[in-house]
Amino acid sequence: MAGPAMRLKGKDGSPKRPSGLKWQGVAERGAASNTVDFRLGQQKNFVARSDREKDDSDATIWWSALLDLRDTSIAAFMQGLGKGLRGQIHIPTDYTPKDREISFDSKLVVVFATTNLLTDLNLSGDKFNVAAVILGAIIDPDFINLEAKSQSTSLPIIKVPNGSVITAVIDDGIAFGNDVFRDSLTSTRVHYATLLPTMPGTAPGQASVGVELDKAQIDALLVANTSSMLLDEDRFYQQAGLIDYADGTFSPTSLRRSHGTHITALAAGYPMDAAPDDRPILCAILPTRVTEDVSGGSILPSLVLALLRLTRQAARFRCKDGSRPPAVFNFSYGNFGGPHDGTSPIARVIEDYFGPECDADQELRLVLPAGNGNLSRTHAMLAFDAGGSRPAKVLDFVAMPDDRTASEVQLWMPYSASSPLPNFVTVRATTPDGLQSGPVDIAAGSYQSLINQDGIEVARLSFAFTPLPTARGVITLSLNPTASLTPAPLAPSGRWEIEVTPDQIAADESVQVWIERDDTLPGFRTGGRQPYFNNGDYQRFNKFGAPLAVDPPGTDSPIRRAGTLSGFACGPSPLVIGGLTQSNGKMSDYSAAGPITPPRGEAIPYRDGPDASARADDSLVLQGVISAGSRSGSMVRQNGTSVSAPRVARFTVNEMAGGADGDRAWLHIQAGLQDANFPPPKPIATRTGSGRMNISVNEISPGA
């Protein structure tokens, strides 16, 4: 249903300055996701030439993506595409011939495919048994080995002592040659490393993307680059393919401080002369491009590949008694968006690998951070009174200037078993210069496009239904970047308004709103700038000028700290860890909070917040914690719930070596017992979980 565009007036009553933009309703395209449709259509305006096919005049763009396949097999899906389309897609060799023949009800499968094919699948997915397309990142075709073939040979067994527990870390910029990951000068404790940012070989037996190194290959690199009892670490990483200064590609490993090294050392680092032989390490190093995109969307295909490879490697290990040792995974990443009910694509992937239906022969655990978005003003809850006059509610949304990445606001509707869905609310968006869109309703194909003076779409307000298991509607405001180093169609920066008018929404239901994460990580090239809500009724500080870490009692503001838990951390199985300040036992202000939304048809959510909390800051003055820098012998400081999670991962590894279950129920007991080590009062459970954990990592640094 389209309505006339409306223009707001300035304070003096005159129309605001025209911008050459206009909203228009667009005919139904039949896309499964209007957000994916928008992103596929827009990226050609921002993609670098190096990411296009160099011999194709149409500049075909390749993407990493997840396909949500239903009632089929990988082989049947590929056969159904036909010969013409099969040349525009590559299934990674990580899926063995056996994997490809297995039929399933539902499976998220990693692919590399062209814009044209992904557009077709998003528009006509039912024809190919594709329920949804989840985009990753644009990828240079040179980084895909299209000649790679699946290998069906079994991997050799790795023998380890009884009581061994594997630590597996998925992160960026892991300096795996650091001496805290070695047991001698030229012997590593890293039994396997996959370097996803590295250009693969071109032989059929090589990986589709990245490079895989086993312990023997890493040891050979250590020997080749060690002289006079010292490792030339820069040359080691260059030969491994992790750093290429000549290529000009950014690598966090080249910096003094890298997130992945810091995290891996907290989880599994030991002095080289005291390294245990029963704590093997596996690691997956994520591409810089997907970690730069902090929204979390681009990371999903790389995460699935990392889990495929690391779980397959973990299955190779055997203790002397013939059993498979447990493995504890740490993934210190988070995002703001998603349904926050444990049914998002990443939650489904996590349950596939770590849920109760997984391989009973090997215990696998996953530790995640709660997230750092508590004070980010990126979450809102809109509830409306019953009956009578129900006025619209308006969210002031600030799109930052000089933001070279796309921005997104997601308005998630309540679950309903009705078909068609009730028209819960109607949403309009208003640009900073006062141009208001027509309404977007809870109806398939309902969307409004913001068109610039050249006739190019720069923003879209659209509705989509997210299929099972989520089964909820979402209205999304998608914006192009507000700045670019090259000529491109930009969205306007400034204060937008999102007007939400109630229709059939009940008094006990709410619209949950999240702005997707969009900042720039420390050490990375400046790109994203985090948008935020700026409603005047949001109270940021207490009477002393300190940030309020908990919503004031009885607040009327729709902007909330409660409910900011990372969208990655909402499923039932992972161990989710909040961050605290060690010196006073209080939660760090940024540590995100629950509760989350119950999944469809359920009255109770999977969790109320994190499971436990651990040190993220030494004190209010000495922020962060000490851990290894990128080069051997260096120590650096980082904070955030990202550094709380590996501390608990390390504790879980050591306890599972003694026979502990290492699951959420076990962690709740441990956190409850350890909370007595901190001064009262205990923070609210939606922020701290079952308790505060006092875990030292003295092996890295005394007092750490």
Describe the overall structure.
The relative contact order is 0.14. This protein has an eight-stranded mixed sheet with strand order 12-11-15-8-17-18-30-31, with helices on both faces. Helix 7 (259-268) runs parallel beside helix 11 (641-657) and helix 9 packs parallel to helix 10 (345-354). The chain contains 13 helices and 33 strands. The chain is 18% helix and 25% strand. The protein folds into four domains: 18-26 and 376-533, Jelly Rolls (Sandwich), CATH 2.60.120; 47-143, 2-Layer Sandwich (Alpha-Beta Plaits); 160-369, no CATH class; 567-688, no CATH class.
Q: How many extended strands?
A: 33
Task: Output the radius of gyration.
Answer: 25 Å
Estimate nothing, just give the exact number of structural domains.
4
Helix content: 10-25%
What proportion strand? 15-25%
Numbering strands along the chain, what is their spatial order in the largest sheet?
Answer: 12-11-15-8-17-18-30-31
Alpha plus pi helix count: 13
Biggest sheet architecture? 8 strands, mixed
Span of the ends, CA to CA: 59 Å
Question: Any low-confidence stretches, pLDDT <50, length ≥5?
Answer: 1-8, 49-59
Give the tags:
13 helices, Alpha-Beta Plaits, alpha+beta, seven-stranded antiparallel β-sheet, 704 residues
